[in-house]
Design goal:
The protein is of the alpha+beta class. It has 2 domains: 11-165, Galactose-binding domain-like (Jelly Rolls), CATH 2.60.120.260; 172-338, SGNH hydrolase (Rossmann fold, 3-Layer(aba) Sandwich). The protein is built from 6 helices and 21 strands. It has helices spanning 179-182, 193-201, 237-242, 246-263, 285-299, 328-338; strands spanning 11-13, 24-27, 35-37, 41-45, 50-53, 70-75, 79-86, 104-108, 111-116, 125-127, 131-132, 138-143, 150-158, 164-165, 172-177, 204-207, 230-235, 268-273, 304-307, 320-321, 325-326. Strands 1, 2, 4, 5, 7, 10, 11 and 13 form an 8-stranded antiparallel β-sheet that branches. Strands 3, 6, 8, 9, 12 and 14 form a 6-stranded antiparallel β-sheet that branches.
């Protein structure tokens, strides 16, 4: 296959047997037949590495995560291996250090055939085990984890296998908010509600949600240029945790709606109050939910809609991992219940 940046064939062959006695062709990350999608921005794409990046910059360094971004291709290979590099750039707001969290996925024709993660911060390079693939031509997809600074260094296919570009849907949904939308505490990227909703909507997912952030009007500018025709914004828990004044919170949400509309003049925007949590405080979650609804009403945008977060997941702690983030069951319910509302 041809390298995107030149007319030189970029199929690299490693001499001899590799990985359990198999011969592989190694494809550079900028090989044109590797289709990249579901991302906001590319940090670098060269013959050595592919790395995505997002433009919302906070102290958690989540700009180096790119939840759900994809590399896809069609092949008749029956063996696949990936060479990955974890850059340790993401700050883990749960563990409080630069470890990696979140599990990526490998799909064949949409079915998960394997996952990858690396939990040792000092061991950054990683060659995955061999993933066996079914016979015949299939679409293979590599899905980035919800919270890790991941780089792809090569896609290794059994020697002589075909490699053809794959396609992704043209329509896109932007997922905005905090860690509940980014996917924290889901067991892997493919069980996050954003990923599941994108599948049922047949849309690419541009996940701009950022762990730990409060409502911030300026964050909506990250939607500029994404081409999203649908957008969700779930917000409120971090303001509740820090007890932000309600008027300050409401103004920030309203400002976010205004900026999102400027970024995407024709998109349908769905503003969602935070989901169920048993946690209590002086200013209650119910008051923050009401403030989100009031902000949506005050924005006066006929193409923006309010969704009550209590309506999209069973209000029980068995839907949560801890007391804040949805577990896999809760995330599945959120995706299912949002599906008919995102029209």
């Amino acid at each position: 296959m041809r390298n995107r940046l030149s007319n030189v064939i970029r199929r690299f062959r490693r001499p001899g047997l590799t990985g359990g006695g198999y011969f592989y062709d190694l494809y550079a990350p900028n090989t044109a037949a590797l289709t990249v999608s579901d991302y906001q921005a590319i940090q670098q794409r060269t013959a050595q590495t592919l790395e995505f990046r997002r433009t919302i910059v906070e102290n958690n360094r989540m700009q180096y995560a790119s939840p759900g971004s994809r590399v896809s291709f069609q092949t008749n290979a029956e063996r696949l291996r990936l060479n990955l590099y974890w850059n340790a750039e993401v700050y883990n707001v749960i563990s409080g250090n630069a470890t990696f969290n979140g599990v990526g996925s490998v799909l064949s024709n949409g079915t998960e055939i394997g996952t990858f993660d690396w939990s040792q911060p000092l061991v950054k390079g990683y060659s995955t085990p061999t993933y066996p693939l079914a016979t015949g031509t299939k679409t293979v997809t590599i899905v980035w984890p919800y919270s890790a600074g991941l780089q792809l260094q090569s896609v290794d296919l059994q020697r002589g296998a075909s490699l053809v570009a794959a396609t992704r849907p043209a329509n896109k949904i932007g997922i905005c908010g905090d860690s509940i939308s980014q996917g924290f505490e889901s067991s892997k990227i493919t069980t996050t509600w954003a990923y599941l909703l994108g599948n049922t909507q047949s849309r690419q997912v541009i996940n701009l949600a950022n762990a730990g952030v409060p409502a911030d009007a300026s964050h909506a500018t990250a939607l500029t240029g994404t081409g999203c025709d649908r957008v969700t914004y779930m917000i409120g828990y971090n303001d509740f945790a820090s007890q932000t004044a309600l008027v300050t919170f409401q103004n920030a949400v309203q400002g976010w709606i205004t900026n999102a509309r400027a970024a995407l003049p024709s998109a349908r925007i769905y503003v969602i109050s935070t989901i169920y949590s048993p946690n209590t405080n002086t200013i209650t979650l119910a008051q923050y939910r009401s403030a989100v609804q009031a902000a949506e009403l005050a924005a006066g945008d006929a193409n923006t809609f309010y969704i009550d977060g209590l309506s999209i997941m069973t209000n029980n702690t068995n839907r949560l991992s801890g007391t804040i983030h949805p577990n896999d069951l809760g995330a599945s319910e959120i995706a299912t219940n949002l599906q008919p509302l995102i029209t």
